Amino acid sequence: MNKNVLTHVEEAASFLRERIALAKLPVPKIALVLGSGLGTFADRVENPLILPYAEIPHFPPSTVVGHAGRLLFGTVDKVPLAVMQGRVHAYEGYSSDEVVLPTRVLGKLGVQQILLTNAAGSMHPEFTPGSFVALSDHINLTGCNPCVGPNEPTLGPRFFDMTRAYSPRLRQLAVRTASEQGWQMHEGVYLCVLGPSFETPAEIRFFRAIGADLVGMSTVQEVIAARQMGMEVLAISCVTNFAAGISDGELSHAEVMDTGERVSARLTQLLTQLLPKLSTLQE
User: Fold this and answer.
1) In Å, what is the CA distance from 116 to each residue of 55, 86, 252?
2) Cβ within 8 Å of residue 10, ≥6 positions away
3) In 114-128, which positions are buried (b, 16+ CB within 10 angstroms) versus exposed (e)?
4) Residue 210: which residues within 8 A CB-CB, separation 6 or more?
5) 61: left (phi over 0), alpha (psi -120 to 50) or beta
6) Residue-by-residue DSSP string for 116-158
7) Torsion of CA 217, 221, 224, 226, to 10 degrees
8) What is the rounded CA–CA span in Å between residue 151 and residue 21?
9) DSSP letter string over 203-228?
10) Active site members
11) What is the CATH number of the domain that holds 189?
12) Is the separation of the CB atoms in 233 and 116 below 8 Å?
């Protein structure tokens, strides 16, 4: 961890507290991160305070198509919420500290539950494009961990448990909410690679052999930082394509975007019903 990280986190959190107070909004205890092609839920936020990442001290700007790069504060059905409309990734050239800075800032603001979404490639025959998967665990093959370096105790302990990195009770709640809406949400293991190149068929065969169901290039570092700070995590992948070698077609970011946009209405419906349930679980 860079020695300036804590200063950057506190300065960004202080800036956001002031803006939230000026807007006379409640400080949220739930945060939502919207991944590639999944940003339309942000339209549901009522009377939002909208802050481009470039206006927030030390926030890294998003450079990937499909990531608007805005932080919104407001309510959805009376539930106070922070919504990150897009994220940054290590493959953009950002350090681990920069990738998770927004997560740490949200934790400093008092967020207790963080819901992360992403686009992922499927290695499971039943996880077809357009389906959603609640993550039950992950495999980190990026070679990166945001907690490497000098430890800052105010951000959490040096060593912390990752046995239940993805909250079982939040996952069960999400699966049950999807069922109430008449569709099935799967559960599976997400494997994170550095990117930005898509994986080779040989890599996919290896990933399947070690127990992964999905592959992507985000989320895991954020989860690690959130768990260090004691936040409860729910993560949902939108399956946008079959991984290399599973199907005959070539992979592209356009396919990821197209599928995400096609199913974004279902995700919006799910989140709209899920958020009030999450708020009842807070301390």
Assistant:
1) 22, 10, 22
2) 108
3) bbbbbbbbbbbeebe
4) 139, 191
5) beta
6) EEEEEEE-STTS-TT-EEEEEEEEE-SS--TT-SS--GGG--S
7) -110
8) 31
9) HHHHHHHTT-SEEESSSHHHHHHHHH
10) 36, 67, 89, 91-92, 119, 217-218, 241, 253
11) 3.40.50.1580
12) yes
Range of the domain at 29: 5-279
One pLDDT digit (tens) per residue for the chain, 283 residues: 776 899 999 999 999 999 999 999 999 999 999 986 677 888 899 999 999 999 999 999 887 655 578 999 999 999 999 999 989 999 999 999 999 999 999 999 999 999 999 999 999 999 999 999 999 999 999 999 999 999 999 999 999 999 999 999 999 999 999 999 999 999 999 999 999 999 999 999 999 999 999 999 999 999 999 999 999 999 999 998 898 877 766 767 676 667 667 778 899 999 999 999 998 887 5
For residue 19, what is the enclosing H or E element?
helix 5-22
Q: What is the mean pLDDT of the chain?
A: 92
The residue type at 179: S
Residue with tokens 């490639």: 121
Q: Which of 47-71 are b and which e, b meaning 16 or more Cβ less than 10 Å from the residue's Cβ?
A: ebbebebeebebbbebebebbbbbb
Domain count along the chain: 1
**Integer Cα distance of 230 and 112 in angstroms:** 8
Q: Which residues pair with 241 in a beta bridge?
A: 121
pLDDT tens track for 102-153:
999 999 999 999 999 999 999 999 999 999 999 999 999 999 999 999 999 9
Tell me which amino acid residue 49 is: L
In angstroms, rounded to a whole number, what is the distance separating the alpha carbons of residues 264 and 145?
30
**H/E element, 256:** helix 253-279
